[in-house]
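Example (one chain per record):
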Amino acid sequence: MATANKGTKSKAGGVRFAPPQPTEGTSSHVHFDEKLHDSVVMVTQEKDGSFLVKVGFLKILHKYEITFHLPFVQRLGKDVCASQLANLNLRVTSIAPGSEGMEGYNIKCEYTAHKEGVLREEMLLHSQTNDKVSIKVVVQARVMDRHHGTPMLLEGVKCIGSEVEYDSEQSEWHGFD
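Predicted structure:
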């Protein structure tokens, strides 16, 4: 424990900065570009006509409901269905016409994050009036391991379950009877 000597004075000092002076054409507020969409599922059309759907970070062994909007594709028409692929991790649950003012297709699917890393799962959408017409949709996710916390989900992504069986020895949470 330190003691002060009677002959010494303590000086309380600080540094003060003048508030920044806005210059002409600038303001003190932070502005974001309106095209910044970091919080929503991003859908982009690739050069080959397929679509890439980026759903952000997900957690391994969790099941998600993913909802996104695809723009209208003339060659597909209005009546569209998903082909049954042998993909156990991605399943289309509904396809509906776009909401008012947004021509296209509202797609809802379920996705199970089955392994870590950047995953790309494919689905095919077919025209119901012409069997030979289809487009490929690739859903891309970054899947984190279970030790890296809980990701902040994008708008359009909802966790609907977990396939993880937690070891009760490692957790303070215990089941209710």
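Caption: The chain has a mean pLDDT of 80.
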